Structure formats: C-alpha cells, structure tokens
C-alpha cells in the first residue's frame, strides 16, 4: 500500500467519522430546539392567558368601582334629600312660628297704637274742655300751683357743668334773653366758660355795636371763637377784636365793612388764630401780606369769593415764616387767580390736605397741575362749578393720596379718569360725581375694587344702568358702602334694588329719587336692608307699607310726589317708625287729617315736615302737631288749599321756619285743588283769593342742614 492510498484512506475515514458525528449532533440540537420552542410556546400561552385574565379583572374591577361610586352618590343624594326635607320641615315650622310671632307682635303694636290714639283723642277732648273753662275762678289757683312747681325746679341749683351744658344749646340772642329773667339767671349766663365761643351772626342787626364792644371788652380773655358772619358793623367794632388775645377762630364772612385796616388791627392783637374765614369780603393784597407775618400757626383759611387780591397777594404767603402750617384752603369763586397764582400757593403752602375750589369757571387742568406739583399731601378735593376740568386733572392728582373727591356738573370727566382709580387712589372713601354726563357703567366697574369706599354720590349721572351697578356691587366696595345717591339715574330698574338688598348690609342712606323704572315690587326689596336710616323715594311708584314694617330705625323719609300714597303709609309710619325725625309727603293728594293725627300721636321726635300739596289737610292738623310734635322746627305747607292763613300764622310762632300759601297746586303736580287728577291741563285756572307766602326764618342747626 502506497503512502498516497494510506492518506486517502485516512482522510476518507476521518471525513466519514466527522459526518457521522455532525449528523448525530444536528439531530440532538434540533431535538433540544423543539423542546425549547415548545417551552416558550407554553410560557407564551400562559402569559397570554394571565394578561387576558388581568385585563378582564381590571375591567371588572373598574365596573365594580363605578357601581360602588354610583351607589355611594345615590346614598349621599338620598341623605341630602332627607336632610333637605328635614330642613324644609324645620324651616316651615320656624317660618310659621316666626310669622305667628310677627303677627302677634304686629297685633300688639296695632293694639298699642289704637290705645295711644284713643288716649290721644281723649287728651284732645280734655284740652278743648279745659280751654272752654279757662275763664272760671279756678284758673288763678291753678296758676298759683304752677308757679310753686316752677319754683321747685330752679336750674340755678344744678352743678355748673350741667348749667353750661344747657346754655351751650342756646344762641347768643337766647342767652341774652335768659339773662334778663332774674338775678339768678343773669349770674348763670355770666359763667366764664359760656363765653368761649360767641356767635354774633344770630343777633345781627338786632343788638347795637355798643353792646358788642362791651361784650368783647368784658370777656376778651375768655373768647376763643368769634362769628361775625353777615354782620354790618362799624370798623371800630372789628378793631375791638384785637383785645381778644386768646382768639383761635374768627369768622368775618359776608361782612361788607370788613377792610384791610380791620385785618391789620386783628393780626397785631390775635397772633394765635388757627381758623380764619374771610369769605366774600373786600380784602386786598395788603391783607394777604399780613397773613404770613402774624398768623404763624394758621391752619384753616377761607378766601372764597374775595376778588380784591391778585396773584401778587398769593406770592406774599411765602414771606416771613409763611403759611406752611396751612392744611385747609378755600378759593371758591376767586376767578382772578391764574396758573402763576396756583404756583405761588404750591410754593408757600405745601402742607395743604383739604382744598375747595367751587364756582371757578376759569379753573383749568394746568392750574391743578401747577398746584399739585408740590402739594402732594392733598387728601380731600372739591371742584364744583369747574367745567373745564378734564381727565388730565385726575392724571395729575395721581401723586396725591386722595380720600375724598367731589366733582359736580362736569361734562369733560369721562370713564378714563376711573380706569386706574383702584391703583392710584386705593384709600378713596368719599366720591361725589353728581351730574357728570360722561360717566357710564364702565366707571362703576372700575370703582368696585375700592375697599375703603363708604360714600358714593352719582346723582343725575343718566348713563348709568343696571349692568354697571351690578358690577360695582359684586366687588368688595359694596360691603362698606354707607351712603348711596342714585337720584335721577333713570336707567335703573328693580334688578338694581334687588342687588342692593343682597350686597349692602351696612347701607344707611339711600336715594332713588325719580328713578321712574322702579316698581312697587322692586322697592319691596328695600325691606331686606335693615340698616337704613334715611330713604328718598320721591317720584317713584311706591306703594303703602312698602318697607315700614322692617325699617324700625328709620329717621328720614322722602316719598314726595308719589300720588298713589294714602293714609295707610302714614299709619304704617306711626306704628313702626316712631323715631322718625324728617318726613316729606309733598305732592301726595290722598293724605287726610286722620293720617296726620296718627302721626302727631306717635312720632314725637319729628323735626322737619313737608306737607306741601296735600290739599285735603285742614286747620285741625296744626292743632295736632302743636300738641304731639313739640320738637317740630321746620314746617312746609305750600299749596295747602284747606289750611287757613289765620291757623298758619298761629303755627308760625311754634316753629323756627315755616313756608305757607293756599294757592292751587301747580299744573305739574298732576291734580287740582280737590285732589282729583287733571285730564286737560289747559283748563286749570288758579284760584282767586290765594293767600300770599308766609315765611318765618331762623337759624338752621347742623341737624337740619344734614337732613
């Protein structure tokens, strides 16, 4: 065997052996792969089945959770229904009990009212019977007993503090009269503290200059406040004021004889004056030169309607120590002041906080801008009768921390002034924008964020409607609002009143005069404003007893020219509003004597009464008012055709101010002298023997001015 054959044989054998083992390995490998694939398949099937079960279980669980949630909500709703039903039962019982209690209280009030009215009528009968028997001899004995009782009530025995408190309520004229009663009363009227403040304006043209001179000479060290308003005195009398070294307040407004020379004497003798009123006098630049030199502590200065000084006089305010302590300034009617004059004021009176400029048609935006450049402390601003003021003024005032603003009769102030008012003036509390035609609902929306706002007057802003008022009341400003005047805002309807009753819990004063779109239903919502003290609903469609039952603290009510009102409104007032101090039923032709009799019997605190145009009233009501309303001060009886002139003259001695005539009602009242509605206005003729107007004038107190 050759080597080649041996090699071939070995190669063949080796190849055969390898082929045999590879095939065996391949068969074994294929068998293992099938087993692994089967295992994988089994695992895949198992995994699929598990995921399928998981998915089914997930859907089942979601379904069960939804069912549980539905069941829970159903149970909760059932509980709420049961709770609401229980509440409804409780509220129904409470409402029935409250109605029963209210009805019982109302019946008690009505019974009490009837008893008081019966007692009142018996009192009238007794008084008339006493008047008829006044000529009998027993009169002298009764007068003697009254004298004895009077002697027992001698006020001179009271402490000095109590006596002073009594005499402080009297005018100077009354104090002088009291001093003439007897020696004891004269001593009481000469207490030093009583003469700290002397008001000669109440006795002007009554007492001579000689008495004023002696009074000032005697009490020169006690006098702190002097008021000569409207007094026509000699220059010598004004010069005597210089003897009052401790004088702090001086008012010489409307005194035509007050001159620069009078001011010179006063300034030299009274350097401590803090308040000075020179309104409507003939002062010139000479007086303006005296102010900064002598009155170093002057805080309040009024130069209203003084047209004798010029811009040069305002420049003098910076002389000497200047008027740097001035905080109040009134420049009303000083039309001679130019932009330069306001610059002089800004340079010398940087501490001004209260500025009043009324009746100033020459006032422009540049004047205000020149003033506020250095007077950044202004908090109160009054601009009435300044038609040329525009939105630029509001922009210039953004540097001041305003709290009170008052504009009236301005057509150039628009919504743009209020756009950023909550950011520029966040502390605004009083806003008076009466008769500003450019203000719309957009302005009210801008005012809604003012949290400090308490007084808002938008009278005669005829472009304001329900939408703007609703947006204003939805803001935080409605919570603190205390006074709201919406007179002649003719676009307002019942929706506004309903919103007011919901959002204004602290509202005290409300005026909806001549809002003719309001109905009796809308006015009925006012019963929900329990804090109301004063309401003006004149010219609206108010019904009897609309809100009286809930307005127990009502003090001021104006329902004039509501022709559908009858005696029922007066009866409701007499029963529920016994604290009433001011009432106007002018232009209500259905009011009769019986209603006024009830009013006189119950409302004993009545100070102001207007019954003008109540044509059914007779002389009897005047007798009732004299007996029941002893605090009555102002009585208006215009166009009262059945009240005689003689009765009105007797009544005039019982009140401080009275207006009376018996003419036929004017045609615009809408009814004739009998109270019947007019059908043809052209056929109405005035009555022939009409009495002329009778007016008794007297000084108003602060209470009447507020009313």
TrEMBL record:
GO BP annotations listed: SCF-dependent proteasomal ubiquitin-dependent protein catabolic process
A GO-annotated cellular component: SCF ubiquitin ligase complex
Keywords: Leucine-rich repeat, Ubl conjugation pathway
Domain F-box: 152-198
Domain of life (superkingdom): Eukaryota
Pfam families attached to this UniProt entry: DUF7885, F-box-like
Region: Disordered, residue numbers: 654-707
Signal sequence, start to end: none
Record field: compositional bias (Polar residues): 654-664, 696-707
Alphabetical list of PANTHER family matching this protein: F-BOX AND LEUCINE-RICH REPEAT PROTEIN 13, PARTNER OF PAIRED, ISOFORM B-RELATED
Name of this protein: F-box and leucine rich repeat protein 13
Organism: Macaca fascicularis (Crab-eating macaque)
